[in-house]
Amino acid sequence: MLDAFEIITTSGIVLWRKHYTPVSSNVINSLINDVFIEERGGQKAGGQDGGTNPPYKKDKYTLRWTTGKDLGLIFVAVYQSLLHLSWADSLLTAVRALFIKQFAPELKNPNVTAIDARQFNQTFDALVRRLDTGSTRRPSEPDSDVGPPELTPPSSTVSAGEDEPPPLPVSASATFKKPAIPERQKEDVAVIDDTTSADATPVPTPDTSRPGTPAGQPVSGVLVAKGGPGKFSRRARKANSSMLSNSAPASSGDESPARKPKGGKTSVKQKRRWDTDGGIVEGDDEVLDYSASGPTSAPGEDDRDFDLTDVNADEMGSRTRKGEFVLKDLDDEINAILSSQSTSRASKTDPSAESSGLLSSASSKISGLFRNVVGGKTLSKADLQQPLQQMQTHLLEKNVAREAAERLCTSVETDLLDQKTASFTSIDKTIHESMSKALTRILTPTSSLDLLRNINNTITGPTSRPYVISIVGVNGVGKSTNLSKIAYFLLQNNFRVLVVAADTFRSGAVEQLRVHVRNLSELSQREQVGTVELFEKGYGKDAATVARDAVTYAGTGEGKRFDVVLIDTAGRRHNDTRLMSSLTKFGQLANPDKIFMVGEALVGTDSVAQARNFAKEFVDTKGQLRNNGVGMDGFIISKCDTVGDMVGTLVSMVHATGIPVVFLGVGQHYGDLRGLNVGWAVDKLMR
Amino acid sequence: MEQQSVLRDWATWAFSPSLSVIVVTVLITLLVPLILHYLLHRQSDSTDVPTFLLIGPSGGGKTSLFTLFTNGTLSTTHTSQLPHTATCRLPSSTSDSSDFESEVSPRNSEFVLLDTPGHGKLRHHALTSLTSPSALKGLIFVVDSAAVSSAQGLTEAAEFLHDVLLVLQKRYVRGKRTVAVPVLVAANKQDVFTSLPAGLVKSRLEEEVGKVRLTKSKGLLDSGIGMQGGAGEDDGDEEEGNWLGEFGAKEFAFAQMEEYGIDVAVVGGRLKGEGDEAGQVKEWWDWIGGNLSR
């Protein structure tokens, strides 16, 4: 069952929440961090299509979420990963529609810091009960033997009548995608039912329902559960119906209708199980439920199945299943909301289509142009399409990989869709700003790397040991060069550096490093700074073993002679699995504190694959990726001086892995190593 | 058809050399700039409300403090993704339960509170808003006093604080008519068992900021320098400009910031209390009140 449900604003304030069991707020915080801020694994916070968001797993929980982008809302459902809550998506969509509907006026206020959402509890409870029962069905089937026999006869009868599942999906999908006629009819009917039920139900509820319960006898548990939803739904419906008439339709009308019907269908079957499992049974609820059903179908009272079928027949057959009246009410409510939204939407579009008059179209165009200049224009997908295409081309020209450029543009689009441009800001400028922000966010590391501090912390104190840095990369990107640049930088800070030639493969690799080390030690002696030495075992040895030996040598021997160990590795093609797999062993044996990958700024689209393939090789002995599941600790982008403005490789590599860029190689000299200034990079990319 | 003829009539009139057309044209020419100016001017006026900025590493309690100050009640919060502004009012001694003795007259007891996200990737929001609002009256740097007791939390807080103070210092040095910006380091979560008292938070932060300052000065230049041109012309000044506090001083102390008009106060408090007891934020209110009336 559901563990928690929260409605959060993008500024971090919880507007409404319901916890069934205590759930640490860390769970949701990590969802926000990983999915919304760091956008890990290419997961996008979708705008309107909430249900398609992939679930996020954290600890033992699975989180599903949807967003109300225009209002800056995030809806999160938390449940145990062991359970399979297929209805969570429909719940999210339904809650989003209802919540936005109910609190639209308050939410529209940009400075809202809290709203009194207590009244939403009832709506939510009703919603959960209806959907929940359906969802639990699957898990309950195996464990509860009693339930199935009871259930089966009704379901079979129902199915024979084709009342339960078939009508819902078919009608829903048909209505949504194709002509609106069936949907309209159905919705209209639903609305009518709603009103009628509202009038009729309240009176009989408590009394009638009591008699109804005993009839259920063996199935009492199930019945009870059903009753719950009924009571709540009625209340909620009342509350909402009042809201309905007044408030304008909120966003996200499109998806929700399609989704809801689905949810409804699943809910029917699952309801029963949930009751038995979850044990969320309220006596009062039962009474109410039956009362509702009682008046409609008197004969069916003793048998649930009969009730259901009858009800279905009366209505559209979609929501009744076993939910009876109460359920119907809720469904009606939801459907009414959705229908009102869709109709309003339709009415919006209709006039524009019909009014093809010369003046009106001309004036709308003129005002569109004017708004483009003056601002205050609400951005639609059509408005954004062309400038975004331009922006994407611009990024591609800056050597950003297509994949990364597309993702950036999508994120800008979801960011800006349905937003209003600021005054005196054109669409292009708005997109430009939004893209700058997206780039800044993607390039800014979550925690800045202060290498010197890290080294100092490692080599001092009781548990001191040498700090190990290793460098990997494709052939010819400048691994050895950048390694000697880092060595130079460390020498300037008076560290004792051991350079390890773990490239035992390419001829001349060791000699190359020897030259570097000779130059560096010459320089450092002249400047009276740190000392540097080369550790080499010749060619043909296993690189991982060499590296391990070097670390041991640096840390022991005549009392910890070195502060930092820099390990150079052989260059390898990222799609050569044989060579790449040896990296895993290398990472485990040498166990470096930092693994930096060198990528050259010259490479284009391939940078994405390079970064991914290298990152995935660094797994520890437990099979977990190093460094919190990202594999490596940073990128060194070499040859930045050769590409001018086209520094898109930075973005591509960070985008692919979420690993930050720590250094840039900007020249031929030992001192030509720079930290990354995000503002500088964004400026170059956007210029 | 009718519309077209109307349009044609109108166009014919608009291009005719009659007096009325000339008058209308002249009026439009004169009035449009005036109206535009009026609109723009009105917008720029509205930003003159004193602003306080909430800043600090993630998980310190910024947004909680924000809701407490704006609503009077504490809301549950999660990691923020976007900055958020709201208007607050100082609690008067009579109306509010916290017996705050206001020296501020109620008419100017309103201020704008700006909450910023503390996540590492989103700090540009905070750092850009540091420089933009001209009426910035103060900065509240919220730290989790419990997190500061661990090395990692301390480093994160100190690095952020270092960056913030450096931005303020540069703003003071370079700006022409800059006003000094006081900084309140709010040592939050004093109710947590492992939290450090405000005095200890202060000394630890000072020590750590000193270390950060040292390694930053020794670290690599960042790519913005030297590649953009212009910045490299005065290397000596640049180095001094990037040094927080008194140049060359070994130890860092918040007192060194006074030279740049940055008055740093470290005050403990807590948002959540034990049981029904409310949190203690009176001293923070006092600080805001004191700086608001300045």
Automatic annotation (TrEMBL), chain A:
This is Signal recognition particle receptor subunit alpha homolog. InterPro entries: AAA+_ATPase (IPR003593), Longin-like_dom_sf (IPR011012), P-loop_NTPase (IPR027417), Sig_recog_particle_rcpt_asu_N (IPR007222), Signal_recog_particl_SRP54_hlx (IPR013822), SRP/SRP_N (IPR036225), SRP54_GTPase_dom (IPR000897), SRP54_N_sf (IPR042101). Gene3D superfamilies: 3.30.450.60, P-loop containing nucleotide triphosphate hydrolases, Signal recognition particle SRP54, nucleotide-binding domain. GO terms for biological process: intracellular protein transport; SRP-dependent cotranslational protein targeting to membrane. Belongs to the GTP-binding SRP family. Residues 259-272 have a biased composition (Basic residues). It is a peripheral membrane protein. Residues 239-252 have a biased composition (Low complexity). One of its GO terms (cellular component) is signal recognition particle receptor complex. Residues 131-315 are annotated as: Disordered. It is found in: Endoplasmic reticulum membrane. Residues 180-189 have a biased composition (Basic and acidic residues). Signal peptide: none annotated. Residues 660-673 form the SRP54-type proteins GTP-binding domain. It comes from Neohortaea acidophila. Pfam families: SRP-alpha_N, SRP54, SRP54_N. Heterodimer of an alpha and a beta chain. Keywords: Endoplasmic reticulum, GTP-binding, Membrane, Nucleotide-binding, Receptor. It comes from the Eukaryota. PANTHER family: SIGNAL RECOGNITION PARTICLE RECEPTOR SUBUNIT ALPHA (PTHR43134:SF1). GO terms for molecular function: GTP binding; GTPase activity; signal recognition particle binding.
From TrEMBL, chain B:
It is a single-pass membrane protein. InterPro entries: P-loop_NTPase, SRP_receptor_beta_su. GO terms for cellular component: endoplasmic reticulum membrane. One of its GO terms (molecular function) is GTP binding. It is found in: Endoplasmic reticulum membrane. Its main location: endoplasmic reticulum. The chain crosses the membrane at residues 20-40. Keywords: Endoplasmic reticulum, GTP-binding, Membrane, Nucleotide-binding, Receptor, Transmembrane, Transmembrane helix. Belongs to the SRP receptor beta subunit family. This is Signal recognition particle receptor subunit beta. It comes from Neohortaea acidophila. The lineage of its organism: Eukaryota, Fungi, Dikarya, Ascomycota, Pezizomycotina.
